[in-house]
Batch of 3 targets.
Target 1
Amino acid sequence: MAAAVEILSMIEREPGRSALYLDIDGTLLDIAPTPEAIIVPRELPDQLAELAAKLGGAVALVTGRSIARVDALLQPHLFPVAGLHGAEMRLPDGRFIEATISADFLAVKEELHARAEGLEGVVFEDKGAAIALHYRLAPHRKGDVDALMEEAAVSTGGGWILQQGKMVVELKPVQSGKGRALEEFMSIAPFRGRWPIAIGDDLTDEGMFAVATAAGGAAIRIGDDAAPTVASARLGSPTELRRLLASVVRRPPGNGHG
């Protein structure tokens, strides 16, 4: 935890030189049994907005959720977002980069939904240009979910790839990737030229960890598991991260720990 605190203290010491890239589920928010059961602490949206103001707008959300869902979770605030693992993006100036959906993918989505209904405990999530099957409520269904998703990936005709996560398998556009999304943000204002800090909790976040550290920045992996990571530091839980970010918001520039 000490290493993570030291990384985040950089924001307090030099907010004008820092940029923050945050995953949502399992990072800012505690994992829930189903995607719709997620709980957003009442104060979190305003705290993120205050944090963004402190960093001159250099706070982006990099998530597997769709941009529309992120906006619903964090209303009334709108942030720069890389949604669907970077397949869709809202840039700081409000411009959108949208994912293209093929007829094959729509057919696969419909069939997968129907077949998933026959697997008790498996939750189908329609993300628009991506699909997810969650098996947190039925861990014994992992083999069934893997088989269904592998078949679905083939049926899309090659435009979508599989992404394993925590008790979830996603079918996402092949051009997506959180590392690629981070590179896109880092190339434009207000992120360009700043020290990147990437924070996430899962295998899907390792790409942005690698990009941030290669650029001379840092990365923090959330969670108490022992999974290998290229992150610079670890932090035990989303609760700890929210507490540390809240402390950054409360302190004026120059009053850090260092």
Target 2
Amino acid sequence: MANRLNTSLLAIGERRVLQALAPRLPAWTTPDHLTAAGLVGAAMTAAGFALSHWSAGFLTLVVAGLFLNWFGDSLDGTLARYRGIERPRYGFLLDHSSDLIAQSLIVVGLGVSPYFTLPSALFVLSLYLLMSSYTYLRVATAGVHRLSYGGMGATEFRILVAGWSLFACWLGPQVVEARLWRFSVLDVTIGTMSAIAFALFVLMVRQDLSRMDRDDQESATIHRLPTRRSAAEPAAAEPARELPGVSAG
């Protein structure tokens, strides 16, 4: 199993909450039930965003869906470890496939809401999928499962989505209608931030590749070193030479 690395802003407090919740769940609850609940929460979030075109009151469905997504997605692995019923390969594939589906629903739902634009949502989703892909590559090549970047993990992202929606609802439609030339100010801002994040991603990949290349070269050098005879090891005796005309028998 890969080593899990979570340096997000809320990681320590979140871990304590999850470890306190796991023993209190009913015995019939399984990690798969929680994974399914997380997907239901993502679908609720997307539906709430779509319905908010008719009433801002549906933002309560968005917040409830994000909470349910956090509850199911964050607690399924904790419960499996607490009960000692981990299935590493099955759990890894199920959990992260569900994450990709859930985050796609949440981000696209945000994009079709009155509080964001679809181009900006697709910028965000593309970066999420890019970082997810690299995370899984690092699991395979370095045995490290990194769950956060720049202090931002899945929990912080959910809070950001909920906070933005409520802020945009309070601010009004100008949050998406403001224009810079022919473009939405929101799209220009998110696009610029995405370009910066992409450049940082490329830099991070280069640093990781340099480190792996250096480690591989050092490992290859060690394997190529000749085996030296120990000073205390006696030299192998040479076969005795026969003197001319003297039989060895």
Target 3
Amino acid sequence: MRIMAVFAHPDDEIGCIGTLAKHAARGDEVMLVWTTLGELASQFGDATHEEVTRVRREHGAWVAGKIGAQFHFFDMGDSRMTGNRAEALQLARLYAQFKPNAVITWSDDHPHPDHRMTAKIAFDAITLARIPKIVNEADAEDLAPPPNLNDEQASSPRFEAWRQPIRFYQYYAPASPYPDVFIDISGTIEQGEEVMSFYQQFYKWEWKPENYRAMRAEIGRLGGVKFAERFNLKVSHLRARDYLD
């Protein structure tokens, strides 16, 4: 199984890090993707874009290494995303390379515009990635290229459309019309805490690792396990199962 987590800013992934770590430990391919560098964070002050890029890439590499994932940054502009076709097409070309079976992203109604726009393009990219003429269209050549996942030295790579179904998971939102999914992260709660603590120390948040653990425990109680993460699956209804559970 291949899972891609698509978020706007480094640290957005905290809400699913236990799930990603659990899948990576099982042997699944996991990729963390950020649509912006989060360059407007006040911690950077007047640092140059190059310096912010360096620090953010270090953050992404550390988190990806902690859970055994690949990672990629786009540079769509912190608090400048519009959810347009060009943004979705950049992501669609990455879908065409990585070939995800599942995507995790933000909810549709989050107050931050970058979060909403990231959810929008993550969903739009599913359709764009299905169409060969779109992922390979000539006027897309000026877009920032996605990483070459095959280590091939092709100056103008041709993308093979990805037409398989993609399960689309979003961070839980009370107003979502879509069904809930709980993932038991009891075995990866420590990795989640480490990632949360990493960011907490950088940003000097008042929200601490013990708050993270308490929140995952509360979600776990709702799902009948010790610790859990909660998502909405963007489908009209869940699949049929053999028996009630």
